[in-house]
Amino acid sequence: xxxxxxxxxxxxxxxxxxxxxxxxxxxxxxxxxxxxxxxxxxxxxxxxxxxxxxxxxxxxxxxxxx
Length: 66
Description:
Residues 16-49 are annotated as: Disordered. With 66 residues, the chain is mainly alpha-helical.
């Protein structure tokens, strides 16, 4: 009987709207976000630094082989 009550509660929940109380909608959440933009610009820089470190290490190995 307990399961039947839970099922009725789930069935009666209203459908969620894309609009929030303050008038914003889900589409407003997709605008430019400074935090995510900053992370996107940092990632390529970090990758460049890592590649540079790898290349330097490889050059040192090549020099040591000569």
